[in-house]
Amino acid sequence: MHRSIIKININNELDVVLAYKRSMQLSERLGMPLANQTKFATAVSEICRNVVEYVGNGSIRFGLSTHGGSNYLLAQIVDRGRGIGNLEDILANRNYDRSGRGSGILNSKKLVENFEIESSFEKGTEVKLYKRLPNHVPGITKSMLESWVNEFDQESDISPYAEIKKQNMQLLELLEQLRMRNLEAEQQLKEIQRLNRQLQQSNQEINLLLEEREKKNELLQNVNQNLDAFAHTVSHDLRAPLQNINGLTSALEACLESEHLAEAQHMLPLLRQQTHKMDRLITGILAYSLAGHHNIQKKVVDMAPLLHQVITSINVPASFVVRVPQELPVLYTQEIYLYQVFSNLLSNAIKYHDQPESGQIQIFYEQGREKLIFSVMDNGPGVAPEMQPQIFSMYESGNSFSRADSTGLGLSIVKKIVEEKGGKVWLESKGRGSRFCFTWPASELVKE
Q1: 116, 35, 16: which is closest to 76 by C-alpha?
Q2: What DSSP state is assigned to residue 324?
Q3: How far apart are CA 210 and CA 215, in angstroms?
Q4: What does R_g of the chain's alpha carbons equal in angstroms?
Q5: Are 439 and 371 in contact (CB under 8 A)?
Q6: CB contact set of 124 (below 8 Å; sequence gap of 6+)
């Protein structure tokens, strides 16, 4: 539905100014915001100026239109020119001079909600510009429209200078509004950037937490994997003192049965010594498993007496020769660690020797600047090259001898303890004989 309000003939620039003014007046009275008033009036003046420039004369009719449930202010501009030959290219925004002819059409189209144009050769062009009215505008009556037209007719002649000045003032007001909006947009952008920085920082913290969680999960998996090994450690490391206690009690029982009391009294200190060693080993293992690897108390450890205790505890056969270096260090470290390492290495050297009647074991020590190097060398059967890579893995014995008294945990325990101290352990074996080496931190060396 369309209702006409006013018609203006377009013949010169003064008529273009008048069309602009009427656009502003009507859009203002119909309740449009100032920004929309200016957009509509600018679109109208663009099309009217095209009429004056390219045709010479035409007309504009203002009216009200209703469709789609909305009300619009309509400006209908008509000319009787030759038409626009490249209208499709202009509307498609291609193949024309964007700063010349046709630019007014595209500019006007961007300023209104609905834009319609029809152009025929030698029949002229018709353009319809629709600007939506606010929903809160009250009903527009016929008498109201007539009063507006009468008011327009009674206006004095239009001064182009005054109108342009007024338009400039309106543009300045719009520019000020745009400036304020730009300031608000800048503040919002700064806030968004600040929030983005916080988000990035939060993401980095989350990533660090995830990495830490992954590391802890890996550590927990390693602890769980080693839990079984240390559950078996008790039986593995206590087997030797238990066997000694069992042998001493059998001998003590025989002495009592034969009433050799003096010999029995001689065995009692040996039995007590083995029980003390066993108690100390149990205490150390419990401390290792319950208190945590880093919580075991350090103490001054003289390596010479320690090795003597280890050799005594494993009950070296008489046919074996064990050589210990005369110069050995004094360390401030966890005694149970070194006790278990040497106990496992010496026990393996004896246990897996294929010629015990001529068995030889030699312990070496070398002091470096940052690390101490210990090694246990035997003249046993050696370890085959294909077995050496997994020799320190759990349940790997590294040889073909089947031993009922072996759990396969000895070397894995050695590796775990040495790596816990930040050192490394390795095997040297070519043909017959084996040499097991490990490093220990030189920072724990006690200087005289």
Answers
A1: 116
A2: -
A3: 9
A4: 51
A5: yes
A6: 55, 58, 78, 79, 80, 81, 82, 83
Per the confidence metrics, is the pTM higher than 0.85? no
- The residue count of the chain comes to 448
The residue with tokens 């894995």 is: 412
How far is residue 424's CA from residue 409's CA, in Å, rounded to a whole number?
A: 17
Decide: helix, strand or coil at residue 423.
Answer: coil
Q: What is the pLDDT of residues 113-152, one digit of tens each?
A: 999 999 988 889 999 999 999 987 777 888 888 898 888 8
User: Alpha-carbon distance 65 to 5, whole Å?
Assistant: 11
Tokens of 257: 């049965």
Selection from 291, 316, 337, 21 nearest residue 163 by Cα: 21
Domains and CATH numbers, the chain: 2-158 (3.30.565.10), 297-448 (3.30.565.10)
Q: Which amino acid is at 136?
A: H
- How would you classify residue 357: left for phi > 0, otherwise alpha for psi between -120 and 50, otherwise beta? alpha
Per residue in 206-261, pLDDT tens? 999 999 998 988 888 877 776 666 666 556 667 777 888 888 888 888 888 888 88
